[in-house]
Amino acid sequence: MGAGVIRQAGWKIHVFLERHLPEQRLFLRSGDETRFLRLSPLMQAGLLGGGAALILWTAVATAILTMDAVGGSDIRQQALRDRAMYQERLNAMAAERDARAAEASRAQTRFYAALEEVSTQQSLLLDLEARERELADGLAALRRTLAATMDERDAARSALVEVAAAPGGPNRAADALGPLVVAALRDTTGDRDGIAAQAAALEAELAALKTELRRQTEQTDRVLARLEEAIAVSMEPLDAVFRRVGLDPERVLDDVRAGYSGQGGPFNPIAMSSKSPRIDPLTSRADGLLEQLDRINLYRIAVQRAPLAMPLQSAFRYTSGFGNRRHPITGRWDMHEGVDMAGRHGSPIYATGDGTVSFAGWQSGYGRLVRIRHANGFETRYGHLSRIRVSVGDRVSQGDRIGDMGNTGRSTGTHLHYEVRIDGRPLNPMEFIRAGQDVL
Q1: pTM for the whole thing?
Q2: Where are the domains of the chain?
Q3: Which of 49, 121, 167, 170 would give a disulfide with 220, using CB separation of 3.0 to 4.6 Å?
């Protein structure tokens, strides 16, 4: 039953083809011989179908190539626009960084100039205080001399009165003591007047010195106030940098102090006074400023040791951020423990902070990988490199080149996979990059 239906359907198709595509014969002549090629209806239908399929395939392929060309041109144009935009952003960031660096340099120059002025003012104040003490001591000595002279004068007067009161005293006093007493009184009066004049001059000079000392003290106080304000303003963003990435600034500074605390030298004992030295308020404030300057210097060292710099200095674009995402290869949702930065193959990769290379080689998933151990439990990872330029145990500084960008390991294209960890726990690298832009 089934075979008969198939034969009947085949017969109908053959009749249909005979009606529309009758059998053709193609004669081929070669020399004296003539041959012919018989083209049955089925063969003609096959040739027509093949030709139509070839034409259709050609049209589809042409359309695909055209669309790819147009799409590729759009992608290249978009890539060029993105690159230009990121280049402009990088140039703007570099200009802003240079401006901040120049401003910081000018502020540091002004600060040291002001500190030198404070030192000069402090030396002048100390000289004025010493001069004031000398004048006060001289004035006290003059007053004691004047008091002694006046006592001698009074004693001479009393002796003269006693001699005059004795029998025949007035004549004897006049004859014996008159010229001597008169001369003594005249000398005493002259000495008193001279000492009084010197005392008045010293008092006037002392008053002028006190006025000058008060003026210098007020000027120094204003300079110190400006320095204290400038240091406070400079200290605030440094504190915020480490708090932003979840670190206690005091812990960071203590760690820096522990690593930079070397002292030494020969032991030369000195004689110490049993009296406590007098420390004036201005000296205490100057010492406080020096302590704050030391704190700023500790922050500078801590910023260099922490991974706050950019791992790339050439053009790039962020292609994947930190957090949950759909994996570009497996298609499953997973945790992305770093950021991806796509750029040109072979772009230089730089260390983002001072540290020691703890791993440099191939690791599954990362491809060629460099791991750097930093202070305070930090670790940075640089994955998918095309070339590694450091070895395990190398000490690197912030900004040292450690490798080249590549496409090794589990990767869909040339990029850098950058991670920041503390005690093995992944952190968002963008927090460190943004914090570093505030101080670097």
Answers
A1: 0.47
A2: 118-259+283-305, 314-439
A3: 121
